[in-house]
């Protein structure tokens, strides 16, 4: 039994959201100069576009693996 399109989209979104928390802390560098009013733990360059892109690719690969396992073994 295959996944419907809606089920696959929902599953992809859930995988994407959960795995986002794996990618957010990668390559975090703190600000070198802490100015008044800035949080000392704030990242200098968070590179969110890069992390969102990597997260999207990772989530797609996980979804493909889940669909293959579901279709072959279940």
Distinctive features:
74 residues; mainly alpha; 2 helices; rod-shaped
Which residues form runs of ≥5 with pLDDT under 50? none
Tell me, what's the shape? rod-shaped
Q: Name the helicity range.
A: 55-70%
Radius of gyration: 18 Å
Number of strands: 0
In total, how many domains does the architecture comprise?
1
Largest sheet entry: none
| Average pLDDT taken over every residue | 91
Give the number of helices: 2
What fraction of residues sit in β-strands? under 5%
Order of helices and strands: HH
Secondary-structure-derived class: mainly alpha
Separation, N- and C-terminal Cα atoms: 8 Å
Mind explaining what this structure looks like?
By secondary structure, the protein is an all-alpha fold. It has one domain. It has two helices and no strands. Helix 1 (5-23) crosses helix 2 (48-73). The chain is rod-shaped. The protein starts with a helix and ends with a helix.
